[in-house]
Amino acid sequence: MQNSYYELTIILNDDFVEVIADFILNIYSEGLELGQGKIIIRSESDLTFVKEALVSLCQSLENPIEMGYNMEQKENIDWIKSYQDSVKPIEAGDFYIFPSWYEPKEDKINITIDPALAFGSGHHATTFSCLEAISEFVDETKSVIDVGCGSGILGLACTKLKARVELCDTDPLSVDSTKENFTLNSENYDKLWEGSIDKAKGKYDVVIANIIADVLRFIAQDLQSACKTDGILILSGILDKKEELVVESFTKLKLIKRTTKDEWVTLVYKKETN
After folding, report:
1. Is the domain defined by 124-270 classed in CATH 3.40.50.720?
2. Are 197 and 132 in contact (CB under 8 A)?
3. Which of 43, 75, 112, 157 is the most exposed place for a label (fewest CB within 10 A)?
4. pLDDT tens, position by position, for the chain (274 residues)?
5. What is the pTM of this model?
């Protein structure tokens, strides 16, 4: 172990934490910690390249995201262990999401997710609300697709309920992470691919998409087409101020449940018979 490590703290509007974290994971996938209005990255190597990539990203955006940066070199106390100590299990719906250094719970459906480090582990409001919706609308009779699967946690939850599950994500790192987490939980999916819902071959009883509002709008028709008649769509990743933009794209469906947590909205639709 080296005597020191680098810590890059990125300060930004909390609305953009997950979006920017997703970008970072494409270029650096270790030692990532999400906080309220901040992202912390740790490495034994210099992290200047991450900062430069973010600066370049902001310059390319039509509406730049304001970000502050603080790079420090710190004494190498075992920061991975320190981080692990900070990650706590959560309960959402019927599920207990916990890292492998905790024990499972007998009265819950257990899902092990080792945040590598701290992404898609159930703590974010959108993931939490989706897990609650899955507890209500998914069972062993259902076929499910998880669109933009990230860590695979939502698809895993459906698999734990004995549903038939397919997953997809445009990010190859997310596809790899999903494979690892299914293996960690000794579960199997039906299909997993790199790409989006447009590559799906069939129709599903439940379509889950925990993605940002602009992407939900862009793929709205594909999501609806992939859902069986009388099927359910669980849509999340929607900031409350962008909710109306999403609602406008799903007017042909019946809204049967709306959940808010923090500034995030989860919408559950039913595709009724015409």
Report:
1. no
2. no
3. 75
4. 557 788 899 999 888 887 888 788 777 766 678 888 899 888 888 899 999 989 988 888 777 888 999 999 887 666 666 666 767 788 998 999 988 888 999 999 999 987 654 344 456 788 889 999 999 999 999 999 999 998 899 999 999 999 999 999 988 888 988 999 999 999 999 999 999 999 998 999 999 999 888 899 999 999 999 999 999 999 998 888 889 999 999 999 999 999 998 888 999 999 987 6
5. 0.73
